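Deliverable D4.2, example record:
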Amino acid sequence: MNPELRQVANGFEHRVKSFSGYDVNGYRFHTTRHEQSRPNRRTMNSRVFTGGLDGAEYYGRIEEIYELRFRGRKPLNLVVFKCHWFDPQETRRSPSLGLVEIRQDSVYGGKDVYIVAQQATQVYYLPYSCQRDPRLQGWDIVHKVSPHGKAPSPNAEDYNFDPNTYDGEFYQEEGLQGTFEIDLTGAMEMEVDNEMDVDVDEGDEVENAKDLALLEGLHIGNGNDDIVAPLESVEHFDMADSDDESYDPANPDGDDYF
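Output generated by the structure prediction step:
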């Protein structure tokens, strides 16, 4: 027999540890008594759900959290939840809406009220805001909580209809009737029919003597940008490329000095 199985078969100590809260499966669980002792609490962590071996779904609230220590040489501890379970026969399901409703005033009649902590999934219950309808009175909607740092996995309830055989109507909100235009050309200086709506910038007036000489030389060159006629009025005209990193304004002729 497996040593751990033999240790479990020998039973656990009668003295157990009790906790008011326990973290497992990405949830933080609290006992109902602990929550009731905090009147200004912002969270409710005592509601629990687990699936039964009989295929039924059990919803309830945690009453006690115990740590069991099994006898033996090897430390072997097990945390269990003692829960108040609602009657699974008093559960309503709406597959078309994906809703599960329970009655918190019902009581499970079985004696097996303990579950291992790793079997617990956290949920919370919300009553209907409209209690005038007798069909809604006493019923709460079940909401499953996603574990911290983990997105919920898709299940069959997320895809509870076949679009090929679905006889109902899919709701699609209709758009606005007619058409309309939004004019942003003035704010964004957009072109309309290849014409600008704003005034064209005529540029700055050229006043520098060398720039004027360059422009005059371009006109004398008969439209050839590569031919610049010499100007008597300008003794030294710098035609070096300003992007050329090898160009030195202090040595425009490129003479070598030793």
